[in-house]
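Hello,

Our lab assistant flagged a job as stuck in the queue for most of the afternoon. It eventually completed. Since we weren't sure the result was trustworthy after the delay, we are filing this so someone can double-check. Below is the sequence as submitted and the structure that was eventually returned. Let us know if re-running is recommended.
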Amino acid sequence: MSKNKNQKKAEDKIEKEEIVDETIEKQSKATEKEDVNENKPTTEELLAQEKDRFLRLFAEFENYKRRTIKERLDLYKSANKELMSALLPVLDDFERALSEIKKAEDNELFKGVDLIFTKFRSTLDQKGLTVMEVNQGDIFDAEIHQAITQIPSPAPELKGKIIDVIEKGYTLGEGIVRFPKVIVGN
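-- returned structure --
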């Protein structure tokens, strides 16, 4: 009898352990399902994520377009700047030629060269090239003037000011193509 009792107790113990194991297993499966459901985003969340991703991508593309347009304009301006820089010595030569022809008092030659100079100058003006206005007595500014030399000023009020302009300066749009070359009094 005691064997039967011990055997029955052992069977009961095994049965209880099986029930406990089954219960633990069911609870763990239920917990896993809840974890999966908690981690799985809802349709609204997925839609919001995709909408956010789309808006960021669209904004990035708009920035790219603006940047490339700006780069293209800068390239166009710099190409113009190089061309204008190359044409400035020709413009200077025209001005010197006009002053020499004027001294020779040949009116017909002067009119012809002046006509060509005027057309050339107006074409450059249309493309945005402008002369920087620098006069004797203006205050010297190292940001916009290039000092060739300093000489003793002929008058005390010309100290630190421009005494003479050797070469004209030009701007193209907002940038300086060539700085005016000046003599400064000290």
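-- support follow-up --
The delay was a queue issue, not a problem with the job. The result is valid. Strands lie at 129-131, 146-151, 162-167, 170-172, 175-178, 181-185. The chain has a mean pLDDT of 86.
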